[in-house]
């Protein structure tokens, strides 16, 4: 079984206390658990992939998210980098960029076709984590591919506690996402 840990947007702007769009302490508190989970996956020969929300300031005024959020995760800035120990991880973690809440369809297709099990982690539960869960689920269903999705509540966070709880409930109840599983 091909397994992937997909760490979504665990970037300085979303996690650090001074980040442009921070989820704050709940996100900071994930750091050790995410590092441990990534180490566990890699030790067992499974893959780890981190998404990088990626924007450009000169295009922000035309971006659909521009009406809802302040500009954030500007490409090649400190705020765009993976946060803390994930940024210093050795071996360097693989990354993939995305320009909106969800990975683009080409990337989702590649991931769904490569992996039988995907564990979602990162921030924010009720925006990017949920959007990617929905995208992965729908694509797998549309191409008739069995895919096991996992999202442990201790590996995701949001700046909105109610949104966090809603997103977890939605993933578990509507998408059949499981809470956790050993990666062995």
Notes on the structure:
With about 180 residues, the protein is α/β, with parallel strands linked by helices. The protein has one domain (about 5-175): Rossmann fold (3-Layer(aba) Sandwich), CATH 3.40.50.850. The protein is about 35% helix and about 15% strand. The chain has 7 helices and 6 strands, in the order βαααβαβαβαββα. It has helices at about 10-15, 25-30, 30-45, 85, 105-115, 125-140, 160-175, and strands spanning about 5-10, 45-55, 95-100, 115-125, 150, 155. Strands 1, 2, 3, 4, 5 and 6 form a 6-stranded parallel β-sheet that branches. The relative contact order is 0.20.
CATH superfamily: Isochorismatase-like
Q: Describe the biggest sheet? A: 6 strands, parallel
Number of domains: 1
Which topology does CATH recognise?
Rossmann fold
* CATH arch. level architecture: 3-Layer(aba) Sandwich
Helix content: 25-40%
Question: What is Rg?
Answer: 15 Å
Give descriptors for this structure.
16% strand; alpha/beta; Rossmann fold; 184 residues; six-stranded parallel beta sheet; globular
Task: Offer a concise description of the structure.
The protein has helices at 12-15, 25-28, 31-43, 84-87, 105-114, 125-142, 161-174; strands at residues 3-8, 47-53, 94-98, 117-123, 148-150, 156-157. The chain is an alpha/beta fold and 184 residues long.
